[in-house]
Amino acid sequence: MNGVLIIDKPAGLTSHDVVNRLRRILQQRSIGHLGTLDPMATGVLPLVTGTLTRLAQFYIHSEKTYEGVIRFGFATDTYDAEGEPITPTQQVSLDLAQLEALAIQFRGTIEQIPPPFSAKKIQGVPAYKLARKQKVVILQPVQVEIKQFDILGVNADRARFRAHVASGTYMRSVAHDMGQRLGCGAHLEALRRTSVAEFKVEEAHTLDEVAEATGKSRPSDAYASDTPESLETLFIHPRKLLPELPSVTADEPTAGRIRTGRVVNLPELSQARQVKVFYGQRELLAIATRVAGTLFHAKIVLCGTDTPAHRL
After folding, report:
1. The domain over range 3-60+199-232 is classified in CATH as 3.30.2350.10
2. Would you kindly state where each structural domain of the chain is located, as residue ranges?
3. Mean pLDDT of the region 218-227
4. Which of 128, 170, 133 is nearest to 149 (CA)?
């Protein structure tokens, strides 16, 4: 199966856990994800299967949206609720106007220090591996962009927020830094990702829903012998992928040349730098790059002559 499936990740699982469970459900090894979520976080986790795993390179810098809760009163070593407190607990009564004013300071392009428990590398070693060994972790500030950061409401020592951020932004660091500026400490108590690139939470499915669509009652059940048609309805329609790229439908001769790595003429897309090439309505054949004039060469070929029968 070649496709994109949006999973609503539950709390307590790593992104890799979700990938492994889907491998068992679909009886397929070639599955990857487009953007890691912390185990505590829930929400949109796009998974790519089969040859469409090659699309991951186009989503490295995807923007994301989140909703969550920041708890004020103490900081933790992981900057979230799974960590150990590193400051004394203080009684806090939040003021909405004060937090809204503080949130303004985090909008736009800012300098941010990633959490010590993160995948950022120090001399080739992920920071979280050093932090788990209780070694000193010193990370340098990085430039991130927060396009939207709104405080939705407060209740005692907790604040609900909504954020739209560029790739590389840590909401855990935002929570930690807000607590430092207020002098009371804070950490991220809950986080739900509501979108990644063009993928929305409304399109997401639980692992149980995917298992049910394959004829299994739960992810650990035995494999189904065939792929039910109901499973196909859970996958994102290929025409919705990478909406920023124009698309063209290739005829049989053009598709054949693309599959064998040859340059093709696409006169209707002379102004585009990159294009999506389809064969029929659902088969995303390739992502092609313009080489000169109306001539294009496939940057990646997604469906070859040996494409499996199930093309989602």
Report:
1. yes
2. 3-60+199-232, 64-193, 238-301
3. 44
4. 170
Phi and psi angles of residue 69, each rounded to the nearest 5 degrees, phi first = -130, 130
Q: What percent of the chain has pLDDT over 90?
A: 72
Quickly state the pLDDT bin for 55 (edges 50, 70, 90): very high
- Put residue 150 in one of left, alpha, beta given phi > 0 → left and psi -120 to 50 → alpha: beta
- Per CATH, 3-60+199-232 and 64-193 having the same topology is answered yes
CATH class of 238-301: mainly beta
Q: Per-residue confidence at 122, pLDDT binned at 50, 70, 90?
A: confident
Q: Could you confirm whether 38 is annotated as catalytic?
A: yes
| Predicted TM-score (pTM) of this structure | 0.87
Q: Which residue in the list 8, 17, 38, 177 is annotated as catalytic?
A: 38
Architecture of the CATH domain 64-193: 2-Layer Sandwich (3.30)
What gap in Å lies between CA 66 and CA 74, rounded to an integer? 22
Distance, in Å, from the CA atom of 136 to the CA atom of 125, rounded to the nearest integer, reads: 13
pLDDT for residue 132: 79
